[in-house]
Design brief:
Blueprint lengths: L5 H15 L5 E10 L2 E2 L4 E4 L4 E4 L5 E8 L1 E8 L6 E7 L3 E7 L10 E2 L7 E2 L6 E6 H6 L5 H4 L6 E4 L7 E4 L7 E5 L2 E2 L21 E6 L3 H4 L6 E6 L11 E10 L4 E12 L2 E12 L3 E8 L6 E6 L5 E14 L2 E16 L16 E16 L6 E19 L1 E3 L2 E3 L4 E16 L5 E18 L7 E15 L4 E16 L12 E17 L4 E12 L3 H5 L1 E4 L4 E4 L7 E13 L3 E27 L3 E27 L2 E14 L4 E2 L7 E9 L3 E10 L15 E14 L2 E10 L23 E9 L1
Parallel strand pairs: 1-8, 14-17, 36-39
Antiparallel strand pairs: 1-2, 1-5, 3-4, 3-6, 6-7, 9-10, 11-16, 12-13, 14-15, 16-17, 18-19, 18-46, 19-20, 20-23, 21-22, 23-24, 24-25, 25-26, 26-29, 27-28, 29-30, 30-31, 31-32, 32-33, 33-34, 34-37, 35-36, 37-38, 38-39, 39-40, 40-41, 40-42, 42-43, 43-44, 44-45, 45-46
Length: 764
């Protein structure tokens, strides 16, 4: 089924909803942000119930206009100060609110928009969740967004170079972890293969939410292990200032990398127009100079860089939104192009023995996004939200080959996916102590795999779901939550032109219920406990069912299993959080029981591919799995401006049928970070510790433990309401050669060596 309706759907939605939403009674909110009787410029202020944000000016003042009558939480955050929340009531009037922030070197609490239908602080979530702002991402080591969130407890990285990096949450990745952009599916094929990228650049990100643990009730299949929601502000927010935006620039010596991104917004009378653009240009990633042995040929190579890990990316975006009495409506479009390399054995004089295994991949992605929040304020319905996107994604693979005539990189396979994803939410008025949301969700994908030897058949996938999410407010200190979702999933595989798949003409249908219950109990003003149980569902993908062919970028020969059945999971977690003046902490134990858990593994044998060489066989199988673990973190303000952060996480992932570990399980990890932060200067010393991994699943090889030191310093200064941030960092200070258990090239190449990063960003 060709996807032809999304753009018409978005246009019709605009004309359908605007007539039913009249002008609501509104007021406006005016406020100030100060500390020690001095105004604070550049603070981010968020109106949580309406997903609106603004920044304080040079006088510490801010304003939200055209705010529908109601009760709202106003949240303010800026690095170097403790976050704060005020409750305001708008009733056809101008409301004044003021914040007096306390200086604090402890990382400020953030707002999470991805763990429930409503935005709330981390302490208000039933599941373990964290968020990182753009500034915090700029200060974090690595180039990709996945690397930059890997310091969070429970978050590791699938690695095959920075461009291919993808998050691993509590030992789960690929199709069990959902990566979203602005709450919607990204439309790529990153889960098909470890060499495939998630086409989002870290410089364009305004904020990242990470929800650890199942999140299927709202976001559907593929969230058994959790989700990462990347907020990119493709659709602009109208500000009181006519011109606003961000500019960021980064240079990194580890890959001779330079990146830049600009997002400018013009606001006038509730209208907002934006233009954004930027790019990445990096060469091969530096590693400690040494002799590295290809495990297949036993051929040594003297290397100082990870072969073929370049990344050349560019993008441009346009957006428009209107903020009125009725709420907000907006549309945005983005064009993204990428050409990146896959590491492996480089071309060499002994190419008949040490066969080159590098590749490159080109990506062309065009996306159209629609977002709305309509303040109905009727007798039953309070708000309506409709978010949707359409993505046209094309990806081509060029494996390196070498013969007596020279080096070649002809196209081998290509992946072309057209997808449409939509979420339709109705938030009802509070009924007694109940508040909640009823939602509809759909996702359709038309997927064509071509080339000389396609990995799988062409397919169409349709997912449709309905859900309800309800909270019972038992009192000021107790909240209960329950959610229920029904999913319909259909995969039709057919119409392949390749002989390996001509006989396939199958339709697979799966229906299932998912659900969750949760409890939040405030034990005191400073301490909160939570508990949740979830049931999740995921149908197998076309790749897992029908793949049958070589994939040179990942150096594997894939084989699916058409007998695979849907995964179902039961997740249980408890959490204890404390937030005192000079100390904060969180402790979260969990267990995730997955029936029919689907995973790829190396069989131990190989296949000979003409023109490519010998590739190991990677098959898909299923088993019953048990993942148990914990995450713990604590922050201490030792003296004014000086803070210590510690964290540790551990997961034990077991195949309970075979009574052995699951493949590619992260080892225990720890973090020790000493940081200085005042309202102008910052400095950081960080030690990341990873234990050895000797609990091995099918196809795994052991890795030794290691410790990495990162350091950095920076400053922030103001020009009126414009905020400038500049920082200098050194990652892997001692240029340590180490292997990470989750790297797909660990048996040949180490992780990146020393890198010096210079960051500059401004918010205006």
């Amino acid at each position: 089924m060709e996807i032809i309706f999304p753009r018409a759907f978005i246009v019709l939605s605009i004309f359908f909803f605007l007539p039913i939403v009249g002008n609501s009674a509104t007021g406006h909110i005016h406020g100030t942000v100060k500390s020690n009787n001095k105004p604070i410029a550049g603070a981010t202020i968020r109106l949580l119930e309406l997903d609106r944000a603004t920044r304080s000016d040079e006088n510490g003042e801010f304003e939200f206009s055209k705010v529908p009558n109601g009760t709202y939480k106003v949240f303010v955050r800026i690095i170097g100060y403790a976050a704060a929340t005020n409750i305001v009531i708008v009733n056809d009037n101008a409301v004044q609110t003021s914040f007096v922030l306390r200086e604090s070197a402890i990382e400020a609490e953030e707002v999470i928009v991805s763990a429930s239908p409503y935005a709330g602080t981390t302490g208000d979530q039933y599941q373990s969740a964290e968020s990182k702002s753009a500034q915090e991402l700029h200060e974090s080591p690595g180039s990709s967004f996945s690397e930059k969130i890997s310091d969070l407890p429970g978050v590791a990285v699938r690695y095959m170079g920075s461009a291919e990096a993808r998050p691993i949450l509590r030992g789960l990745s690929e199709n069990e972890v959902l990566v979203l952009e602005n709450g919607l599916r990204t439309g790529d094929v990153a889960t098909f293969d470890p060499a495939h990228t998630t086409p989002i650049e870290s410089e364009e990100i305004a904020r990242i939410d990470v929800v650890r643990g199942p999140a299927s009730v709202i976001y559907g299949p593929n969230a058994i292990g959790g989700l990462v929601n990347v907020i990119t502000n493709t659709i602009p927010i109208a500000y009181e200032n006519p011109f606003s935006g961000t500019l960021s620039l980064t240079g990194n010596s580890v890959g001779d990398e330079y990146t830049g991104f600009f997002n400018g917004v013009y606001s006038n009378g509730g209208h907002a127009f934006s233009i954004s653009g930027g790019g990445v240009h990096s060469q091969d990633i530096r590693i400690p100079t040494g002799t590295y042995v290809d495990p297949a040929s036993r051929m040594p190579f003297n290397l100082s860089r990870m072969p073929n890990t370049f990344d050349h990316t560019q993008e441009i975006g346009l957006g428009y939104s209107y903020q009125g009495d009725f709420g907000m409506i907006g549309i945005g479009a983005k064009d993204y192009e990428m050409n990146y390399g896959i590491p492996g054995v480089p071309p060499n004089d002994n190419w008949m023995t040490a066969i080159p295994s590098t590749s490159r991949i080109t990506v062309f992605k065009k996306s159209l996004e629609f977002r709305s929040l309509l303040a109905v304020d009727g007798s039953l319905i309070k708000q309506i939200r409709l978010n949707a996107n359409y993505v046209d994604y094309l990806h081509s693979e060029f494996p390196t080959t070498e013969d007596s005539s020279g080096i070649h990189d002809d196209v081998a396979n290509n992946h072309h996916k057209k997808s449409f994803n939509a979420m339709f939410q109705f938030q009802h008025q509070q009924i007694g102590n109940f508040q909640g949301t009823v939602g509809l969700w759909m996702n359709t994908e038309n997927y064509v795999i071509g080339g000389g030897m396609p990995l799988g058949p062409n397919s169409t996938t349709t997912d449709i779901a309905g859900y309800i999410f309800e909270e019972y407010l038992s009192g000021d200190n107790t909240r209960l939550q329950a959610g229920l979702r029904f999913d319909y999933n259909q995969i039709h595989a057919a119409n392949s032109t390749d002989s390996a798949f001509l006989i396939i003409d199958q339709t697979r249908q799966s229906n299932a219920f998912s659900g969750s219950i949760g409890l939040i109990q405030k034990l005191s003003r400073e301490i909160t406990s939570s508990f949740s149980i979830t049931r999740s569902f995921r149908a197998p993908t076309v790749q897992e069912l029908f793949s049958n062919g070589f994939d040179a970028p990942s150096n594997s020969n894939f084989k699916g299993d058409s007998a695979l059945t849907p995964e179902t999971a039961v997740g249980i977690e408890a959490s204890l959080k404390g937030n005192f003046t000079n100390v904060s902490f969180e402790l979260t134990p969990y267990i995730n029981l997955i029936t029919n858990y689907i995973y790829p593994f190396l069989t131990g044998d190989s296949a000979t591919i003409a023109g490519i060489g010998i590739l190991p066989n990677r098959h898909f199988a299923s088993t019953n799995a048990r993942l148990t673990g914990f995450e713990a973190s604590a922050n201490f303000q030792l003296v004014q401006y000086l803070a210590l952060r510690t964290s540790v996480d551990y997961v034990d992932a077991e195949d309970i049928k075979a009574n052995m570990p699951l493949p590619r399980t992260p080892p225990m990890r720890g973090l020790l970070r000493l940081s200085y932060q005042d309202n102008m200067y910052a400095a950081m010393f960080e030690w990341r510790i990873v234990s050895a991994q000797n609990k091995l699943g099918d196809g795994d090889t052991p890795t030794a433990g290691y410790g990495i030191v990162n350091v950095g310093a920076g400053m922030r200064f103001f020009q009126g309401s414009v905020v400038h941030n500049i920082s200098l960092h050194c990652d892997n200070l001692f240029n340590k050669a180490y292997r990470d258990n989750l790297s797909f090239v660990k048996d040949f190449l180490p992780q990146p060596g020393r890198g010096v990063r210079l960051n500059y960003n401004t918010v205006f």
